[in-house]
Amino acid sequence: MNWLTSFVRPKIRSLVGPKEVPENLWRKCPSCGHMIFHKELEKALQVCTHCGHHMRLPVKQRLKLLFDGGAYTAIELPKPAHDPLRFKDLKRYGDRLKDAQAKTGEKDAILVTHGKLQGQNVVIAAFDFDFMGGSMGMAVGEGLVAAAELAILQKAPLIAIPASGGARMQEGILSLMQMARTTVAVDKVKEAGLPYIVLLTDPTTGGVTASFAMLGDVAIAEPGAVIGFAGARVIEATIRETLPEGFQRAEYLLDHGMVDMVVSRTELKDTLGKILAMLTHRQAAGDVIPLPSDKAPVTAKPTQKEKPVDRKIVQDGDFEVVDDGSSDRTKPAE
Q1: Residue 333: pLDDT band with limits 50, 70, 90
Q2: Chain-centre distance of CA 60, in angstroms?
């Protein structure tokens, strides 16, 4: 009886009993509230199949989406000083870095990669929001500088994809200095005559927006992305006014001239390919179809030489009249 109770019965229950369902099989859309199966959401590139809301896309999945065949090469970035200020709040900054590195498998919040996008060599610097909110510290500044130098070396366009809450407060003034460094790096890319394109994703705020993120030759944003400097609640508390609906969203910025276009995630690769083709004077990605013309070609008629006109001056009182047979202009006699 003891054998049946302790061995046989648990074995049978494990075979026929209810199985635990993982909690991450379904995702709730933050916009419309629909529950979406995780495989369906991955297939739709983290875009809600009901309302089209663009959820945050993991950085490696984004890179695979943009590069041809999902193949790219990540470069090794220079290693900056570790916790230079010995900063501590509720937790040591060094411990926060270790936790973020263990969570993401990356050394910091930026990946610098290169490969082909629709046959064109490109360098892409993409932020990882899962690493301390994509905050910009010295390592991110080094990454942007390295990406610019690599683009100049390869004579390739540079694409920056920020997803950041701004400067990294744990590095103080050293973090704010990266705003100037990244701006200079972008200027070097432009001086080399290379395209610099920025893809603004959710969110792009703080010091990142105030530096390299708004310097692109073309600024593209994903639908619904939050783009701004200070937070909406901080602005409302400062100006003591209610902000308009959709404030700091990609569509609002498009209407007010802050971004050039808002492009759905499924169309990003084709759009970037066409823009790069135009900026680098390559052949257009699509077929060029000549417009039909129902008018016969116009042939230029031979010009006839004008017959020389004899001009004579006739004295008429106080005026000299220029008589060419057609003109009635007069001028005072000298």
Answers
A1: very low
A2: 16
Q: Which amino acid is at 131?
A: F
Query: Range with the lowest mean pLDDT among 75-89, 165-179, 313-327?
Result: 313-327
Range(s) of the chain covered by CATH 3.90.226.10: 57-279
CA distances from 165 to 65, 111, 129, 136 (A): 23, 17, 8, 8
Under the banding of pLDDT at 50, 70 and 90, the label for residue 67 is: very high
Q: What is the pLDDT of residues 296-305, one digit of tens each?
A: 555 555 555 5
**What is the DSSP track for 82-109?**
SSTT--BSSSBHHHHHHHHHHHHSSSSS
Task: Give phi and psi for 121, each to the nearest 5.
Answer: -65, 130
Instruction: Report CA-CA distances (Å) from 284 to 31, 173, 216, 256.
Output: 37, 45, 21, 29
Yes or no: is domain 57-279 CATH 3.90.226.10?
A: yes
H/E stretch holding 44: none
Ordered DSSP codes for 168-211 = -GGGHHHHHHHHHHHHHHHHHHHHTT--EEEEE-S-B-HHHHTT
DSSP 218: E
**Res. 328: pLDDT tops 90:** no
Does 181 score more than 80 pLDDT? yes
Say if strands 120-127 and 330-332 run parallel, antiparallel, or are unpaired.
Answer: unpaired
CA separation for the pair 213, 217 (Å, rounded): 11
Is 138 strand, coil or helix?
A: helix
pTM of the model: 0.78
d(CA 154, CA 98): 33
